[in-house]
Each structure stands twice: as structure tokens, then as C-alpha cells.
Amino acid sequence: MAGAITIASAQTVVNKGTLHITGNTIVYFGDDFLNEGSYYNDGQTTFKKNMQNNGNIAVTDTGATYFNGNTLQKITGSVPASFYKAFMNNTTTGIAYETDHEMGIRHEMHFMNGIVKTTGQGKVLFFNGARPVKPSDYSHVSGSVAKKGNEAFLFPIGNDQYYRPAGISAPLQEDEIISASYHLRDNNTPRYDPRLTDDKTGKVNTREYWILTRDAGNTPVAVTLTWDKDKTGTVVAALPALLTARWNGQRWENAGAANVNGTSTQGSIASNPAGNLGPFTFSELLRKAIIGLAQIASEPLPQPDQTYSVTFTLILRNMGDLPLDSVMLTHNIANTFPFPMKFKRSGIITTGGELVPNEGFDGNADIALLKELSKLAPNQQDTVTFKVSIAPEGRYGTFYSSAQVAGKNGDLIVKDLSNNGEIMPPGNNGDPTAYNEPTPVTLKMLKIKIPEGISPNGDGKNDRLVIDGLEPNDQVDMKIFNRWGDAVYENPDYRNSWDGRANRGLRIGDQLPDGTYYYVITIKDKTQPGKIQRFVGFLTLMR
């Protein structure tokens, strides 16, 4: 058949033999067309009404087929129809075509006007190398589109009103087939409940979802989704928290996030490559508020007045992705060192970041180490350090210390009890509240005792400065200073002999006047060079 031919009749045109439209031939069917024989199109064919294929349509021809009706056109039949180039240009607004069987596209499908509705087993199948051209809100596929081949592909899908595409990365094999369809939720769409999520997925899109089905092959592919507020009302989370989610048969699970582009009102996102497909939509990262606390106590340092100095370091970490304000850190020191023991905070409280110290903290009447305006940013770690002077009052051994931290995000409050040394150990379960080992503080009974003064008046009582508790291998270096800081006595190998006499500095005679003096005493173990004790304090000389 050659030339330009118009076939217009008031009844269906039926082909029962072989119909070959050769190159440079234009054929126009003004009424329904039924193929029950063999059909080849290497020219240009226009269908004004319905097309039904119950026969053979060649898959090697190279012609163009136009669907140019002005009423609903049905593309049906018992055998799949195949087109090299299809031009969809029906003047009807909205649904302009319906197909209940496979409509194959081997090169291009031009979406000019009118929406293609697939029903029943109907689908539009793009073979390897085929592509959609300019799909839009006015012309796309409302229903199922399949892609066969090993190319990346953007499915020209949507609903009866809007173009809402989804894409896949390239499979490995040419014979792989993946189908996609788009679904806009309404009150009558209870499937795939957005309230059901895994422990990594936050709020799930309640407006729309896409279903991707693997018809052949098993190559993992990344799925690309798009959003458009003006079309469907979808507004995504902040882009850094945006995820894709896949329905696993029971709940929505985190499908990852890659190549996020756009704004909160319009853009696209890709999932991680997945072997299992199914329903996909947008979700946001499950935003958690988690706070952790660790406590470290220094080795107690003995002081000349029989007290100990301990430095406490508290490590606070916001382990979630929500900012925390009103961060409160409390430490009841009285619970650690109970009566009759005595303690006193010494020095300042040092803090980092946006933690604000409460200088009124005393560990008893006021147990708050921070002021309420303290903050911790997401994934932020800061420290609080303070010193305590402890008088055992005869109680020695190991005492256990714990602190508590709390933070707020809106109405949400999170807390943690301190864990010794680190917030969580290696191999942890991710929950800091599961690790709350108290911090031990061991006060050993002091062997060294330095008197607070001497009275060298010859009465046999306190005539010399006698250091109690020395071991046979101890070597004592003692220095005595007057109130102006001048050295008045030095002895690198002191043996409890000082009786108030000077051996350094300017003096008249060697008897020092009564008064208050300052000492520095260093005790070394001759058998253990690294074992050193140092005592600094005041003593009174009174004859």
C-alpha cells in the first residue's frame, strides 16, 4: 500500500489478511480498526477511533502511529500491540486513551495531549532503547508502565490529573523488566499505612506513593522519586533529613537517600540500590533526642590537712539529631560522701560550648552544676569539670558517685545517669541509658601526718616537727618559708629534727621568731623512684 489513503466508514475496518503500510504512505482510519491478520507499518498511520489487535503486529517495522481522536480511544485486543513511534495527540482533556493489554513502544512515545489510562492487565511497555518524549500533566500514563532493558529510565506516570514520574538506575541485563505506577492517597486508600515504620524511619508521606514491581531480573536498582507541592500538596522535610522509604510487606523501612535536589516544595531524591522493590515514598529521618553522660574521677590527692582533693570531669553528649536546650546537670555529692564525712567544692566550675556553670553549686543544698539556659547542639559533646575537697572524718574505702543530665526539645525531655569513664562501652546497643555504672572514688587511710605546729620550749612536748607515718625507705626533702616567701630552712634528707631553727637566709642567731610559716615537703621512696608524695601547708611556731 502506497500513497495517501483515507479509510472512513460507518463501521469497523477489519484486517484479516496482510496489511503492509510501506514507507512514504499515509493511512487515515476514520473509524474503529480491528486487526485479525498481519499488520506492518513502515509509513504513517492515524487512528481516529479505537484500535483492537487480535492478530500479529510486526515488531520490525519503523513507521509512525498517530492517535488523533477527539473522543475516548480504546487500544485493546487479545494480543499485545507494538509501535515503533506512537504520537498521542487526542484533543480530549484528561483521560483520552484506555488500554487493557500490553502496548509496546520500540522507539518513542510522544505525549502531546491526552492521558493514557491502563486498566486490568493493561500496561505500556518500553523496550530497550525506547523512550518517552515530553510527558506532562496534560499527557502521560495513568496506570502501569514497564521498562525492559539495561538503561536508566524515567517512567512517564501519574494519575488522572498530574504527571508524577519515578525513575530507576540502569539494570545490568537487557532482559530485565521493571514496572511502575503512581498512586495519590485519599480517604479511601488505607493500604500501606504510613503510621507503620521501622526504627530508622520517621514521618512517612501521607499523600502519595509509587509501586515498582520486578517482572524479570534481579539487579539492584536505585529508585528516584519526585515531589511537587503545587500538584499534590506534598511538602518534604528539611532536605538533609529527607529519605526514601519502601514498604517491606509489614511496615515502611528506610530505603536511603542519594542525589537529593530541589527545595521543600519541589525536587527529587534517589534511594539506595535495592534488590527488593515494592511501594516507595518519601519519609524523613527518624529524628531522635538522645543525651548521654559519662563521669571520670581523678585519683584522690592527699592534703596536709588530712583531706583529699578529687577532680570530677563530666562528659555530656547530644547523641541525637535534635538540639537540646535547658540542659540540666545535677550532682549530689552528699550522696557520695555521707555524714559525718565533710566536703567542699574548691575552685571554679569549667565548662565548654554553650554550657553555663552555676557557681552556686555546693553538691548539697544546690546540686545543679549548670544554669537552665545551657544548650547542646545535635552531635555536640562538651565537658564540665570541678574539684571537691573531702574530709573523711575516719571513713575510708571506696565510695560511688553518679550524676544525672537532662535536656529538652519542646515538650520532649531526655535524661541519662552517668556511666563511669565513657558514655557507652564498645559494642554498645546505642542506648546510653542502659549504661549507668557509678564512678568509684577510693580514699585510702593516710599514713603521713604532718603536725599543724610545734612549740620548741624544752618541755618535751612538740619540740620538733615530727612527721608520722614514714616508711624506712622514705627520703624526706623539707623546705620552710617565712611569710615573705624567703627560705629559712632546707634539708634534703630530713629526719624529724627541726626545732624552729633557721639554716638559710639573713638572721641574727638561729632561733626563728614565733609566727606562721609555710612548708613544702616532698617524700620519695628510695626503692621506687616514681613514687613521690608532695605536701604543702602552713604551720605555727610558738614557744
How many strands appear in the DSSP assignment? 47
What is the gyration radius calculated from CA atoms? 43 Å
Q: How much is the average pLDDT?
A: 91
N-C termini distance? 138 Å
Helix content: under 10%
Which class best fits the helix and strand makeup?
mainly beta
Oligomer: single chain
**Residue runs with pLDDT of under 50 for 5 or more positions:** none
- Which term fits the overall shape? rod-shaped
Main sheet attributes: strand count, strand direction, barrel closure: 15 strands, mixed
Strand content: over 45%
Q: Please count the helical segments.
A: 2
Outline the fold blueprint.
Elements: E1 4-7, E2 13-15, E3 18-21, E4 26-29, E5 33-35, E6 38-41, E7 44-47, E8 51-53, E9 56-57, E10 64-67, E11 73-76, E12 81-89, E13 95-99, E14 102-113, E15 115-118, E16 123-126, E17 131-133, E18 141-142, E19 145-148, E20 153-155, E21 157-158, E22 166-168, E23 177-184, E24 201-204, E25 208-216, E26 223-228, H1 229-232, E27 242-247, E28 252-256, E29 258-262, E30 266-270, E31 278-285, E32 291-297, E33 301-302, E34 308-318, E35 325-330, H2 333-336, E36 342-351, E37 381-391, E38 397-401, E39 404-409, E40 412-417, E41 419-420, E42 439-443, E43 453-454, E44 474-481, E45 487-494, E46 515-525, E47 528-541
Parallel strand pairs: 1-4, 2-5, 3-6, 4-7, 5-8, 6-9, 7-10, 8-11, 10-12, 11-13, 12-14, 13-15, 14-16, 14-17, 15-18, 16-19, 18-21, 32-41, 43-47
Antiparallel strand pairs: 19-23, 20-22, 22-26, 23-25, 24-31, 25-31, 26-30, 27-28, 27-31, 29-30, 32-34, 33-34, 34-37, 35-39, 36-37, 38-42, 39-40, 44-45, 44-46, 46-47
